[in-house]
Amino acid sequence: MTNWQQWEGRVIQGRFPLRLYLGGSEQSAVYLTEIKGSNAAIKFIRSDATQAQVQLSRWELASKLSHPHLIRILDTGRWRGDDERDILFAVMEHADENLAEVLRSRRLTPVEASEMLIPALDALNHLHGNGLVHGNIKPANIMAVGDELKLSSDGIRPMGESEASTEKGNAYDAPENARGAISPSSDIWSLGMTLVEALTNRLPAWDRTKEDDPELPENIPHPFDDIAKHCLSWDPGRRWSTTEIKKCLHGAPVAAKGDVVKQEMSAVAEVHEIPASAAQGSAPSPETREAIVERLGATWKQRGVRAAAAVIITLVMIAAGVRLFQHRSQTPQPAATTSVRQNTESLVQPTLNDSLRTSTTNPGGVDRGAVNHEVLPDVPQKARDTISGTVNVKVKVAVDTSGAVSHAALVFAGPSGYFANQALQAARKWTFTPPKADGKAVPSEWSLRFEFKRNGTKAVPQRTSPSF
Prior knowledge:
Helix 7 packs across helix 8. The chain folds into three domains: 4-93, Phosphorylase Kinase, domain 1, CATH 3.30.200.20; 97-320, Transferase(Phosphotransferase) domain 1 (Transferase(Phosphotransferase), domain 1); 348-465, 2-Layer Sandwich (Fusion Protein Consisting Of Minor Coat Protein, Glycine Rich Linker, Tola, And A His Tag, Chain: A, Domain 2). The chain contains eleven helices and 23 strands. It has 468 residues and is α+β, with helices and mostly antiparallel strands.
């Protein structure tokens, strides 16, 4: 067994001196080190030969991510320990402290909770929009670097990719994590658990053996009580998205997710087999219900004065640079280690659709908008030959008043991270004729369902907002 705490003073690969042991577990350790004259953290993990290259390639992908609220991974490599076994390491940005340290002595105020949520939601939105999930949201992985709050990056993993093992799990894991099914909704659950603990200094009471929602403490202030309730639904399909959480945080109304209807259950059941372990009778699995409910839900309503005020408040908070954590600890908790995927390069070529629907205007002066130019993924035949039946991927795009896609996010990734990434990259290249109200272009949101088959790809667009 590796003795993690006896390496102080050593120099890894002649470049990274181990200044101070910061903490660890049976499987990992974190030391204070230096890189180019600046403090950094270096994390070690044990990995068998079959998993080593996979882990390194995932860390390499994480090092290419660029977001102001994600910890930067600066270098990675292997090092041979005292037992002559290869140990993997990742050098990353050093955090001054983390939320777990703060919660040992006090709870967050509502203002601090808001300041925690906004950057965390931005980082998760960035990950989910790029086909990734964090996979391990918890207080120890929410960190302060100077005046900025950042999420750990070494545990990022592919969206929708099943894990052979979720290790021992932790109190913040979503129910579906036990089956190795990690999705954006899993991150939302973990964020909800973290939010409750941050405000009350205790986790919600929850029996993992039952399919019930956790029991929330009564002293959670508004609107965090509403946010926590909608994050901690046992059914992943009923959990809020990052966008819905932001809207609630800023005081905007959030439409309730509707009940599943038989027509939608039938449509999804044709292309996705319902796992027996997650269903009884003809009921769809939580993952299937998530796709259905997202298809029915209409978000991104016209925003008006309230949303504009929320944007101004957010910008003021960022400009002020208010520090989330007010006290420092000398031994920051290390982030837990999971995995991150190797990015798949997409080959996307624009394709003109001859049957695009034209924009329609009703007598009330409302132009409903239309697809102007669609792009279909150019999937090599070798990849198509792996398809059995149909692979469905659903992407949600936000469209600005010029008709360009301002944001795209996976709603349902399907069984393959490769095809999900292909659909996401293609969706970002679509253009639209924006809807108009009283002659003025307005933002809109569209649902794009990509259907991959051996003989080709089909896209089915549907405008979901605004609802005229």
